[in-house]
């Protein structure tokens, strides 16, 4: 299967169908394929981060603990002191972010995803967001919990000046995901094909 056929989804597909389609494609990647794509994505993200970080003074970076074949961009921030991981604490609540260092004690959040066992929470200035699928304007599909949308909506309502950086595999790019009212677009999207969207200069953060 080449990258072009990968993007074919059934005509008029709804979100659940699109989500299943790209989750299946991701699951079917060979280990070698996944590693090559992940390495390319990490290289592009590292370059973006170096350039962006040189002009700003970001502190907390919100990462995620990868699962189900998600890209693993943790190596890009391995030397960064201010790393945080999300915890889903309830099905309809915004995510909370907890400081994280390698080797820190972890517990499962309410979806069984490891999260630091730590009472402190932080609000990341740079939020790295996993993309199951994404479109040209930076709208995304995740696992369907609405967590990132809810989290970003809550933070922005409180005056958050941070930046949302989506990371996903290039085969999951679609022209238009037909966003719904609650969908929050990414400011930057990085894939194994490069930085495919960057509005970070336009936003004051
Ligand atoms: N690595 C990672 N961590 C993350 C997220 C993420 O997308 N990736 N999240 C981003 O939100 C939050 C957790 N959200 C999740 C939402 C749903 C499911 C889940 O397993 N859903 C079921 C289907 C549920 C349904 O259909 O209603 C499944 O996929 O089997 C897992 C995590 C916080 N942590
Ligand atoms: N700000 C919000 N307030 C209330 N409900 C919301 C909000 N954002 C999303 N939702 C609800 O969450 C549900 C899932 O949304 P969506 O399909 O966009 O999830 P997703 O972006 O794939 O998931 P995730 O962000 O967890 O990766 C939708 O039914 C939506 O109504």
List the helices and strands and how they pair.
Elements: H1 3-6, H2 15-27, H3 31-55, E1 61-62, E2 83-87, E3 96-99, E4 106-108, E5 114-116, E6 126-130, E7 133-135, E8 140-141, H4 147-157, E9 163-167, E10 173-174, E11 188-191, E12 194-198
Parallel strand pairs: 1-2, 1-6, 6-9, 7-10, 9-11
Antiparallel strand pairs: 2-3, 4-5, 7-8, 11-12
How does this model look, in words?
Its cofactor is Mg(2+). It comes from Hydrogenophilus thermoluteolus (Pseudomonas hydrogenothermophila). It catalyses: (6S)-5-formyl-5,6,7,8-tetrahydrofolate + ATP = (6R)-5,10-methenyltetrahydrofolate + ADP + phosphate. Helices cover 26% and strands 21% of the residues. The protein has four helices and twelve strands; from the N terminus they run αααββββββββαββββ. Strands 3-2-1-6-9-11-12 form a seven-stranded mixed sheet, with helices on both faces. Strands 8-7-10 form a three-stranded mixed sheet, covered by helices on one side. A two-stranded antiparallel sheet has the order 4-5. The chain is globular and about 45 Å long. The model has no long low-confidence stretch (mean pLDDT 93). The protein binds ligand FFO and adenosine-5'-triphosphate. Adenosine-5'-triphosphate is lined by residues 15, 141-150, 153, 182-183.
């Amino acid at each position: 299967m080449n990258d072009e056929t990968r993007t074919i989804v059934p005509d008029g597909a709804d979100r659940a169908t699109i989500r299943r389609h790209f989750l299946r494609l991701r699951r079917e990647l060979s280990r070698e394929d996944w590693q090559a794509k992940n390495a390319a994505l990490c290289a592009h993200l590292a370059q973006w981060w170096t350039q962006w970080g040189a002009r700003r003074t970001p502190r907390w970076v919100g990462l995620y603990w990868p699962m189900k074949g998600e890209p693993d961009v943790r190596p890009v921030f391995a030397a960064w002191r201010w790393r945080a991981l999300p915890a889903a604490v309830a099905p309809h609540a915004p995510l909370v972010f907890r400081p994280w260092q390698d080797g820190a004690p972890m517990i499962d959040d309410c979806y069984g995803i490891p999260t630091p066992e730590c009472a402190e929470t932080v609000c990341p200035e740079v939020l790295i967001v996993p993309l199951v699928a994404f479109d040209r304007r930076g709208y995304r599909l995740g696992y369907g919990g609405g967590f990132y949308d809810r989290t970003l909506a809550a933070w922005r309502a409180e005056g958050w000046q941070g930046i949302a950086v989506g990371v996903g595999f290039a085969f999951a790019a679609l022209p238009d995901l037909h966003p719904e009212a609650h969908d929050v677009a990414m400011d930057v999207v990085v894939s194994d094909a490069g930085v495919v969207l960057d509005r970070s200069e336009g936003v004051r953060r």
